């Protein structure tokens, strides 16, 4: 009797482990994934070496919005950037001020150094189904101004949600 009970407990334990692995693989494949921030282009919001969890489903249900920190697929690597301009908008940077459709836009997420290191750019009109992105560290960021170009919606693979490493930085990304 004890052998059968022990075997049933083992089988139940193995089933629970297999189910947990299947659920974890499903979540990792279809819902959430992790990415490592490489470089200083998003500093001080995100620092080199931080690991973030990003939501892969959010843009299947909704459109990317200004201010979202997104993961962009551009082989051979992914980039982490902030959405600044939406499809059809006019973007211009003049005298360190960002203008969207002719209106000054306050960038409260930037440090003073980043604000005053942003050189003149544009004006440009963002094509439909594309986005304009920039890093928060504008002086050194490779972004829509200087190498990445417009970002097609299908290249935006997720929205950064949470810093998970290092543990002292644990928290939501803004």
TrEMBL record:
Record keywords: Cell membrane, Hydrolase, Membrane, Protease, Transmembrane, Transmembrane helix
Main localization of the protein described in the UniProt heading: membrane
Localisation per UniProt entry: Cell membrane; Membrane
Keyword Protease: yes
InterPro entries: LexA/Signal_pep-like_sf, Pept_S26A_signal_pept_1, Pept_S26A_signal_pept_1_CS, Pept_S26A_signal_pept_1_Lys-AS, Pept_S26A_signal_pept_1_Ser-AS, Peptidase_S26, PH_domain
Active site residues according to the UniProt entry: 41, 81
E.C. numbers: 3.4.21.89
First-tier enzyme category under EC: hydrolase
Catalysed reactions, semicolon-separated: Cleavage of hydrophobic, N-terminal signal or leader sequences from secreted and periplasmic proteins
Membrane topology type: Single-pass type II membrane protein
Domain (PH): residue spans on this chain: 1-19
Pfam families documented for this protein: Peptidase_S26 (PF10502)
SUPFAM superfamilies: LexA/Signal peptidase
GO molecular function: serine-type endopeptidase activity; signal peptidase activity
GO cellular component terms listed in the entry, alphabetical order: plasma membrane
Record-level GO BP terms: signal peptide processing
Entry similarity comment: Belongs to the peptidase S26 family.
Protein name: Signal peptidase I
Encoding gene, per UniProt annotation: sipS
